[in-house]
Specification:
With 189 residues, this protein is α+β, with helices and mostly antiparallel strands. It has four helices and four strands; from the N terminus they run αββααββα. It has a four-stranded antiparallel beta sheet. The longest helix has 41 residues.
Length: 189
């Protein structure tokens, strides 16, 4: 009986993580596609905003930071594989911060994939945010970067669970001991 309760708790936690990941990804895709549409329609010349920040419409045939330019043909299948991997990680995310991080990465990857497949710019991604001494990027690129940084922080920052968050056997919720940075932290060490 107690085993079923643990499994049910784990499944509910996984569903919450997936819904959070999907919601964050949807918000990122919406923001990326809206700003990209605006840039394509209205950004006809370079605009200086403040300090090193500006706007200038450019097309990127490579990956992040304009690496591997001209590699657009094989980037689409690679992005699909990455999305499947991030989806798997999101399913196993035991923490809210990881679910948000995976949502940022997924949303950014789907936003850039949409540029490559649907925008009709020969497989190029539309970039428009400029910083001095930094490659031009877009909202999707910024979200991917933020997601990777958040995921790294979530994996480095130790978790301290309160006794109330442990089940009756003394294990973390859902029995997900390997999600903890310091597995001994939940035992009260």
């Amino acid at each position: 009986m107690q085993e079923r309760r643990v499994v049910a708790t784990l499944i509910r936690a996984r569903h919450r993580a997936l819904w959070l990941t999907a919601a964050v990804a949807a918000a990122v895709i919406g923001a990326d596609q809206a700003t990209t549409s605006w840039a394509l329609a209205d950004l006809h010349h370079r605009v200086h905003l403040v300090g090193p920040l500006g706007l200038a419409l450019q097309y990127n045939s490579g990956t992040a930071f304009s690496l591997l330019e001209g590699a657009g043909d094989w980037l689409v299948p690679l992005v699909v594989v990455v999305l499947v991997g991030v989806g798997w990680l999101a399913w196993h995310a035991g923490r809210t911060l990881l679910a948000v991080a995976y949502g940022l990465v997924m949303g950014g990857a789907i936003g850039n994939l949409a540029d490559r497949v649907l925008r009709g710019h020969h497989g190029d991604v539309v970039d428009f945010v400029t910083l001095s001494h930094w490659p031009t990027f877009n909202v999707a690129d910024a979200c991917i970067t933020a997601g990777v940084v958040l995921a790294a922080l979530a994996m480095v920052i130790p978790i301290r669970l309160s006794p109330a968050s442990q089940d009756r056997r003394g294990s973390p919720p859902g029995g997900r001991e390997h999600d903890l940075h310091d597995a001994g932290a939940w035992r009260g060490r």
